[in-house]
Specification:
Rossmann fold, alpha/beta, Glucose Oxidase, domain 1, 10-stranded mixed sheet, 10 helices, about 375 residues, about 25% helix, 7-stranded mixed β-barrel
Length: about 375
């Protein structure tokens, strides 16, 4: 069936629908990854957004049961140049078209995604509509398109209850702001005992498990809207070692008096270069965010930039000088993307080990095997 993608600036693309038929509003963004569309679809950070893949052929390896980053897709819509309906991969259990239909997601193919991406790069992220309605009239829909807002996205994607993933190592309290499964996998791989808490968990509930360290996950939306979560981080800050990723990175900065601002078109993909200032090395990273920390707003007496984006110079990591806390804007757990920065999980566990040794009399001469209590 014919489908239309209309941007709020009046640009209209004509294509063909896949997934379900109907109509959907969203904020349209682009992802520069050549692979990983399944992980993109199931990344909670895309809640409320229509995602455009810049790579021209999507769906060629189908959909499998292993690469999901959450239980379901969170995108509002999916835009591709060419959809492959005959995937070839031994793990594939269904086509991308079948997967989107099963999860009630609308898609559009057959449009010039390079032209669309250039528009978004030049004019910035916009709101849009995808529709298969034959009588679509842009003038009748423009007010509705411009009025679209992503409402309470963190509350939409967080867990409803505490989930425990048992391990034999350090006990980690993981605040779920829109968590990707590979963050949990990365901790379990290092023998951690992981408790995943809802974003609205009370500080007393987190302290009740007596965690060795606290992780703050990625997540969707404007960080300034997360008033409750910022308050929680303020109360947790300085009590235990903390490692924040993406939205967790931004909220930690806001909890310490810094400011954030929206990027023109964001960073989304698995090929973004980031320099580790301390190691003086540049890594290729996986990213998915539309906001950044304003550098002029950070308290340089307490905070120092540890990582920097090599494309636009924005802050990609902050280390806090007076407490065992560090955060990064990119995704060290990748999925999709390179695993070069997975070392940050090891540094987090080393920070926990040092903190326990320094402040809790943790029998520092005992062999911890890098991650044993």
């Amino acid at each position: 069936m014919k489908a239309i993608l209309a941007l709020e600036d009046g640009t209209i693309f004509n294509g063909e629908s896949f997934g379900i038929e109907g109509e959907v509003l969203g904020e349209i963004v682009f992802n520069t990854g050549m692979t990983g569309y399944q992980e993109v679809l199931t990344d909670p950070s895309y809640c409320g957004q229509v995602v455009t893949m810049t790579y021209p052929l999507i769906g060629n390896y189908g959909v499998n049961i292993d690469d999901l980053e959450s239980a379901k897709p969170h995108v509002k819509g999916f835009v591709v140049r060419e959809l492959c309906d005959n995937p070839s991969n031994w793990r594939s259990v269904e086509t991308l078209n079948e997967y989107l239909k099963r999860n009630n997601i609308i898609g559009i193919q057959g449009i010039d995604t390079r032209a669309l991406t250039r528009i978004l790069r030049d004019k910035g992220t916009m709101k849009c509509i995808i529709t298969t309605e034959l009588d679509f009239c842009f003038d009748e829909k423009i007010d509705e398109i411009k009025a679209y807002q992503i409402k309470d996205p963190v509350a939409c994607v967080t867990t409803n209850e505490v989930v425990h993933y048992k391990g034999d190592g350090y006990k980690i309290a993981l605040l779920d702001l829109g968590i990707k499964k590979n963050i949990v996998r990365s901790l379990l791989k290092r023998d951690c005992d992981v408790y995943v808490f809802p974003s609205n968990a009370k500080v007393e509930e987190i302290h009740a498990i007596n965690p060795d360290g606290i992780m703050l996950s990625n997540g969707p939306g404007d960080p300034k809207d997360c008033i409750k979560e910022i308050g929680t981080i303020k109360e947790l800050f300085g009590k235990k070692p903390i490692f924040g990723i993406c939205l967790g990175h931004q909220l930690t900065a806001l909890a310490n008096g810094a400011n954030t601002e929206k990027l023109k078109f964001g960073h989304r993909g698995c090929n973004h270069p980031v320099k580790d200032v301390v190691k003086d090395m540049t890594y290729i990273t996986s990213q998915n965010h539309g906001y950044t920390i304003v550098e002029e707003s950070i308290d340089k007496s307490r905070m120092e930039v540890s990582h920097r984006n090599m494309n636009d110079g924005t802050i990609e990591g902050i280390k806090y000088k007076d407490v065992p806390v560090f955060t990064v804007q990119f995704h060290p757990e990748a999925s999709p993307g390179p695993t070069d920065t997975g070392y940050l999980f090891d540094e987090f566990l080393e920070m926990i080990k040092k903190h326990k040794s320094d402040f809790e009399g943790d029998n520092s001469n005992e062999d911890h095997g890098n991650n044993k209590k």
